[in-house]
Write a structure and sequence with these properties.
With 282 residues, the protein is α/β, with parallel strands linked by helices. It is built from 11 helices and 12 strands. Helix 1 crosses helix 7, helix 4 runs parallel beside helix 5 and helix 8 runs parallel beside helix 11.
């Protein structure tokens, strides 16, 4: 019997890896972006579900402009909170499993050790608060849902490493923060983990990032080394860099829920980054 999946936010960086990963896992997949399925408009969402008749909806749609969200709180909450709620309620009404993507930014970064799924949250900025509100909308809608928190994604689209490589090749200065610690995650690694999660794990909350941790500064240096690019990277503090958005200093995630089930399959971040780059410079 065939299984049908609908991936919302289909033009996004994660969706472009999740669709083929689902197909490899035996799913028939529809992919829809805002033109076909606007999650801020329930009628648009309901029409898409009626067309696709999915057994699974993967909500990859999100407002991800972290700095811009500080000036446009309404837009961030419309997508990340209210939009997530619209998807969750539509899935609950149709008895469809929902996979919802959230973020490591729901934490305040003060723990200084990898965050467990059970740790208390404490979002700092508008983007982070909107994503946590989205989690709460999903939980409150009833139905069957799985929330996967992830972060620091790179892949086929604009991302941290692509920006670093572009500046290096243009001879522009590289000032990178050295006091924010993260777990950079390739979207292909995450997509494979999500398919395994959908197929074999009970509904619930999970953390899914590549293993290990690094500062953004060291991540930049490793990326440049693997890409065969030479550039001076100047480490700076968060204060020296001058971000307009309050950012947590430590958002590395532990993967306790997946590990207890024997389902954690993501590799160390350096290995994944090397595979993404392959044998040629970007």
């Amino acid at each position: 019997m065939s299984r049908r999946a609908l991936v919302i936010g289909g033009k996004g960086m994660l969706a472009r890896e999740l669709v083929p990963a689902l197909v490899r896992g035996g799913w028939e997949v529809d992919s829809a972006d805002i033109e076909e399925c606007d999650i801020t408009r329930p009628p648009s969402l309901e029409r898409q579900l009626s067309r696709s008749k999915p057994d699974l909806v993967a909500n990859c749609a999100a407002y991800t402009q972290v700095d811009r969200a500080e000036q446009d709180e309404a837009a961030a909450f419309a997508v990340n909170a209210a939009g997530a709620g619209n998807v969750a309620r539509a899935c609950a009404k149709a008895d469809v499993l929902l996979l919802h993507l959230s973020t490591d930014y729901v934490f305040d970064g003060k723990k200084g050790a990898p965050y467990l799924e059970t740790d208390p949250t404490g979002p700092l900025g508008v983007y982070a608060r909107s994503k946590l509100a989205g989690e709460e909308e999903v939980r409150g809608a009833g139905g069957r849902w799985t929330i996967a928190r992830t972060g620091e994604l790179y892949g086929d689209g604009p991302n941290f490493f692509a920006a670093i490589f572009g500046r290096a090749k243009s001879g522009l200065p590289l000032r990178v923060v050295n006091d924010q610690f993260v777990g950079p995650t390739w979207t292909r690694e995450l997509a494979a983990q999500l398919v395994l999660l959908i197929d074999r794990a009970p509904c619930g909350l999970y953390h899914a990032t590549c293993s290990g941790e690094t500062s953004w500064c060291e991540a930049a240096r490793e990326g440049l080394r693997l890409a065969g690019l030479e550039a001076k990277v100047t480490p700076v503090s968060t204060e020296e860099y001058g971000s307009p958005t309050p950012r947590p200093r430590y958002t590395v995630l532990a993967h306790q829920a997946l590990e207890r089930l024997g389902l954690y399959c993501m590799r160390p971040w350096k290995q994944a980054l090397a595979d993404w780059l392959g044998a040629k410079a970007p």
